[in-house]
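Structure ticket #2291
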Amino acid sequence: MLAELFIDNFVIIKRNHIIFEDGFNVLTGETGSGKSLILEAINLLLGKKANKDILGSFKDQTIIEGVFEIDDRNKKILENNNIDFDEDDDKLIVTRTITDKSSTLRINGRVSNLTILREISPILIDIYNQGDSNAFMNKANYIYLIDNYSNDNLTKDLRREIKELVNKKRDYLLKYENLDLTDEEITRERDLIKYQIAEIESIDLFSINEDELDEEYKRLNNITELREAVATAKNILDTSDYDISSVSQMLAASLSEIASFTDMDPKVSEFYDRLSAINDEINDIYSDMDIHEETLIGDPERAQELEDLMSHIFNLKRKYGASIAEIIEYYDTIAARIKELDEIEDLRANLDVILADIDKKLDEAADALHDIRLKKSKVLEEKINASIRDLNIKNGRFKIEFDKKEAIDTTGLDEVEFLIKTNKGEDLKPLSSTASGGEKSRIMLAFKEIFADYDNVDTMIFDEIDTGISGRTAQIVGEKILDLSKKRQVISISHLPQIASLADNHILITKEDVGEHTISSTKKITGDERTNEIARLIGGVNITDITKNSASEMLAMAEELKDERR
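Resolution: structure written out below.
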């Protein structure tokens, strides 16, 4: 769940630290007070792209940080996405720092990127804004919703089997297309491959180390300069020319100068020993260089042989790959292909058998999955119909309709449509195009309640889900959200007192002018402050004794209701 939200220098929020609680959290405040900013900050924690317009005028950077408490199930999922946790720590900390020139992201203290954040965000928070293209309103998601309902292993196994078979069939069909050739085409392709194989086999690429080859070529082409450099280095170390002071001569002079004083001064004795060791090492180096100089002999024939070999390799790279490894990979591919061409008739016959077997298995798996989906859909229909009636859509009726696709794909053979009618006398129509905003919100809430036991999301956020409803319907929606909060943490941005009064944690958002700035801030409210806020939601700006009494009564009734439902 989202335990804490820290916001620093974000538009008109100077500095804010919000503590969320388990259960039902509500955020209320006057229009323009900054409710949407809180939601925008949360969206940034879920991977929304940031821009410099969000920077406040209080500092030169914006910081948004969220602290999530993660259960063991989701912790394993996050660890599989390479998110590290400290030992015995179940907290996930997401920190975004935005300036006018850059944006950085850290997850549990380590630098990360938005791609990873967007991959993990679906298990952190599910946000619903009225009017969104929500998963429950998008036809493309319907088959997944049915399959994920009850989260049973048999559905998962069948889905996995169908996906593997479809991909396998696609690969074999592609292979079959590559075998659909005339005798003339087979002859031409075989001749071309044989020529390519002979050209690649003209040198033993498999035993060539290109780095060693290049090193030997450079050495032979620079042998004269190399020999001269070694000889010059030798003369610098030691030379018989008395007009030149060599390193050995200078070291010998240094040793001679201090030799008679080693008994008098321990430090001088140490210098003598160190210089003697250096002198011995230089003599060894000189000896090794002298031996090596004798080996530096030119070999024009070998140099020409290497040049021809490297030129040949260059031509092969130009045709078959950018490196020897790629040429060998290409060689293996065409060697396998010529084997296919030589056995093409047998392969064609075998592929027909293989494809027939795959189709048989696909039909069986798709039929089995279809039967499971039908059973699930009946249960879902009953539960959703009961839930939408509870949500005061009295004449509503929900139905799941199945149709068959032309061919089995990775999801099976089923095409699914969610149909609904909300009033008497109407025909069933697609859910996504019929319900009003308030009705869609309630239908979505019904789905959320039913699927809450089977998804991995710890936190659900409803952004003014109560728009377009009032009175008894608002009370019913509030009660549904309250029930949902027993299974998941719920954060609701609301303007209705019926919903706000049911919250376990009430956060008030206010805005005030401070000097030259307008600043939005939040605080948890209880007691009289909460009564006054509920009264404002009931009666507007002018809070009277009547609205206060109504607010007190509403809060008392809400507590009684929560006690009954615990």
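Closing remark: The two ends are 20 Å apart (CA to CA).
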